[in-house]
Amino acid sequence: MNDIFRAFNISASGMYAQRVRMNVSNLANYESYRANGEPFRKLEVVFQALEDPKNLSKGEVPVRVVEIRQSNEPFRLVYDPTNPRANQEGYVQKPNVELVKEMVDMITAVRSYEANLNAFSATKEIAQRTLELWR
User: Fold this and answer.
1) What is the 3-state secondary structure (H, E, C) of 88-115?
2) What is the spatial distance between Cα 3 and Cα 15, in angstroms, rounded to a whole number?
3) Which of 7, 27, 78, 84 is the most exposed place for a label (fewest CB within 10 A)?
4) 66, 79 Cβ separation under 8 angstroms
């Protein structure tokens, strides 16, 4: 029975991690600037595997969210000399958010969440059938 609870724990940790990843969407800030005029810096979710040697050999590796940090990637530079934010050379610093990459990351997070949900549901079905056999 402990194996079933570990399976629930692993699936739940994966769903939680992917939910955090979906909630930290950078899409809304694609063109945002901070109050000081600096472009928005993309946020990144950092995961960590909770490795336990005895469970690692069984493939049981739950994850946890370690931090949500700002990206170190450089800002995008767009040539627009008429923009009031343009520098001396006519370039404007834009947030370091790439729309296509963010959409791919969002789709990947949704698919990963769904995979963990399916594993959770399958485990639940196995637990229910096991209890029915014990009756």
Assistant:
1) CCCEEEECCCCHHHHHHHHHHHHHHHHH
2) 18
3) 84
4) no
CB atoms within 10 A of CB 8: 15
Q: What does the block give as tokens for 106?
A: 């969002």
pLDDT tens, N- to C-terminus, the chain (135 residues): 677 888 898 899 999 999 999 999 899 899 999 989 899 999 999 998 887 766 666 667 788 899 999 999 999 999 999 999 999 999 999 999 999 999 999 999 999 999 999 999 999 999 899 889 888
Q: CB-based contacts of 87: which residues, under 8 Å, 6+ apart?
A: 93
User: Do the Cβ atoms of 93 and 80 come closer than 8 Å?
Assistant: no
Tell how far CA 3 is from the center of its chain: 27
Closest CA relative to residue 118, chosen from 24, 7, 2: 7
